[in-house]
Fold this sequence. Notes:
This protein is mostly beta strands. It has one helix at about 5-20; strands at about 25-30, 35-40, 45, 50-60, 65-70, 75-80, 85-90, 100-105, 120, 135-140.
Amino acid sequence: MAIDLTGVLANVTTLVEGMLLLDTVRFASPGGGQPVFDPEKGEYVYPEGAVLYEGPGAVQSGSLPETASAVVATQPWVNETTSKYKAFTPLTAPTAARDTIVTVVRVHAGGDQTLVGRQWRAMDPSQGGTLGVIRVTSLDQLQQSAGGA
């Protein structure tokens, strides 16, 4: 006997979206150019191009930051870290391309308000699957250097 998962997945999708997609995120194409200092935030922000999606979503840390070392053992450590995060959006959101800029626009009450305005870059196109209930995009946080960008 075959089981029709369509209704089951629709119910799971509704449940997961209602529990996880509490914030507003923006996916935009890279605008090109150098980061610009935002005096209100006190940090540099990367220019955004066309907005591809703005709506319900979430950004969560995927693991601890990783610091890469130089290829030669006698060379110093590289200052840049890879900060792995995941963006979650509904399946109706477009698939993000590599290098899409993801920005947290609004955080739900009780959430971490310091995430508003923080930016990440999509490391790869959004993941998908035939039994998916939510879209997942791997991210790397856009870093701030000591002297600005």
